[in-house]
Amino acid sequence: MPSSAEEASVGPLERGLAVVHALAGAPAGRLRRSDLVRATGLARSTVDRIVTTLVRLGHLREEYGGDAVLTPRVLELGLAYLHASRLPELLGPPAAALADDLDESVSVAVPDRDAVRFVIQTPRRRALSVTFRAGDALPAERCAPGALFAADWDAPDFEHWHARALSDPDDETFPALPRSSAHQRSRPTQEEFRALAKEAGKRGWALDDQLIEPGLLAVAVPVRDGSRRVVCALSVASHSSRHSTASLYERALEPMLRTAQQMTEALTTREERPAAPVPARDASLDPKRELGPDYLQSLARGLSVLAALSDPGGMTLSAVAQATALPRATARRSLLTLQSLGYVAETDRRFIPLPRVLELGYSAVSARSLADVAQPHLVDLVHRVLESASVAVLDGPDIRYIARVAATRVMHVDITVGTRFPAHATSMGRVLLAALPSGQRSAWLAEADLKPLTAHTLTDPVGLQGVLVDAERDGYAIVDQELEEGLRSIAVPLHGPDGKVVAALNIAHHAGRTPLSEVHERLLPALRDTARRIEDDVALAFALRPS
Q1: Which of 6, 28, 522, 525 lies 20 to 30 Å from 384 when distance is taken between CA atoms?
Q2: Looking at the DSSP assignment, which residues form a beta bridge with residue 479?
Q3: Which of 304, 338, 366 delimits the end of a domain?
């Protein structure tokens, strides 16, 4: 624990994490500053300084209505644990294969004190399906993995569980738990749960017969590492309309045991990772000079320490100090604070992040769609250039708008999310077509109905092919009054974490209001800058999402 002399510098880290935790539990990860005061019990002046710091770090944004909202940058904290554990990387593929084999939802969960926290989710897309996300936590007594993990608990572990159960009888500390079913089942006594855990440990599997909500069934088996230690649990979930507990057990157990063995073998692999770039200097120095006392430098440094703990096997104090460009003493204070809060553990002089880190907004923010990630950047772009901006994807012969922010003008283009336009006559369509492999692009052109929409629409397949080649080379496309008289637009591609184009971003404006030269000089740089910001957020939000 930090000494009293160290408390002044580590206190902001503890309080800052309390603010992040409060936002993580709020709908859509957003709260007003006054709500944060009530949720955390902190003084308004303290909340103001924390929010200012987190906004400067990029972990929060403040919207024009006054809400503080978690951004994808906060995912760096949860990703540190997931990368360090290597569980999504190593166990994600066999979990997905099992889901395909059984045509049921499959998850992998880890023990998190007296809770169970999901790290992998591969749900099936059907009307009745599992809606939990990676990062969500459930009470150990309300799910099949919990009994498996409790099989290894000692007496203090059960006492801790029992104390939590008494202090939180309605499971309010588990926001992922369906509220409608919170009171439908009584919690087992300590003796009853001990018996359930002992039975699960002896059998090597556990069943969940509607413990979470009516109709939801699951079976779980343990996954062990090379030393036979239970690392996580593999679960298959279904609905009572498809299975009974007996039929789910009969159908799933053997494939699950085979998959669990594959996972055990995967966990014994050791692959060297390329060394992460080492910062030349402490990243908190410039913001501190810029914002003065409003910037909590120890909070910024503590978050950089937590985000740096991504090496499998843990990191020494020296390695953490080097990875963050911080003095050893500063890194040590942050690590000890994080350890006291349950976010970090120390083993053999190495510090590792714990699953609890995922409660810092990972489940809510990582589940955001591309449109959700792009929307605030579109707002900023529109305020910057005073023109409408949109994001669209290729959908057969058309583009389909998935996000849009309109500029406030007397004359504007009336487009809403879901609107479709022929791809050949739009700037976003052309950058999306330009990103297709040459064979797919040629096939698209051969089948396309290149009908004219205005007197300016390019309808010659050969000419359009040349325009697409130019768009691929230049990284942008301009369409001048080909979709509608008087409407001009410019678009750039948006890339996913794997470098492939996943969508397009554009600015649309009235051709008579903005000369073409200004499109290149003013709009294109702003468009590219916004695309880069969206891609940075997409890289975090989609980092470990199944393709």
Answers
A1: 28
A2: 489
A3: 366
